[in-house]
Design brief:
- This protein is α+β, with helices and mostly antiparallel strands.
- The protein has one helix and nine strands; from the N terminus they run H-E-E-E-E-E-E-E-E-E.
- The protein has a single domain, classed as Tick-borne Encephalitis virus Glycoprotein, domain 1, CATH 2.60.98.
- 18% of the residues lie in helices and 44% in strands.
């Protein structure tokens, strides 16, 4: 019986250590550092720190992507909506970036800043885009 308890205890310690290691690796994604006006690309869950602006922007999710595929004739061009989280001067905010279909770049404002952005890949007829394939290319200017 003691052998069984010791084995169970060892197993639980192993699981605990493994859980701590996995959690540490999952949250250890460094933010890329860029300057205002510099073009950068981030995937879902990735962040960029804007040098000298006390700002971090994180690409949280694609809310919806109804952009008309290039190979298709559509009545409406559609829109891609992406949610980003911006921490500026210590205050977190959520912002939805809307990019009309068939457009190269779109712009949204956040306070005194202009975000120029483009969501890729662009939809193709009959192909679903997995969330982990989306990339948001941005430039932030004042």
């Amino acid at each position: 019986m003691r052998g069984m308890v010791a084995m169970l205890r060892s197993f639980l310690v192993f699981v605990l250590i493994l859980s701590i290691l996995v959690a540490g690796c999952a949250g250890n994604q460094e933010a890329v550092t860029v300057r205002t006006g510099e073009v950068f690309t981030i995937g879902i869950g990735q962040s960029a720190r804007i040098a000298g602006e006390d700002m971090v922007i994180t690409f949280e999710e694609v809310i919806g992507d109804s952009r008309c595929p290039r190979e298709v004739v559509c009545v409406w061009a559609g829109v891609a909506a992406s949610r980003v989280r911006i921490i500026h001067l210590g205050t977190p905010s959520s912002l939805v970036l809307n990019q009309p279909g068939l457009s190269e770049d779109a712009q949204e404002t956040f306070g005194d800043y202009t975000l120029t952005f483009n969501l890729n890949p662009y939809p193709r007829a009959g192909e679903e885009i997995p969330p982990d394939e989306y990339r948001l290319t941005l430039s932030i200017t004042r």
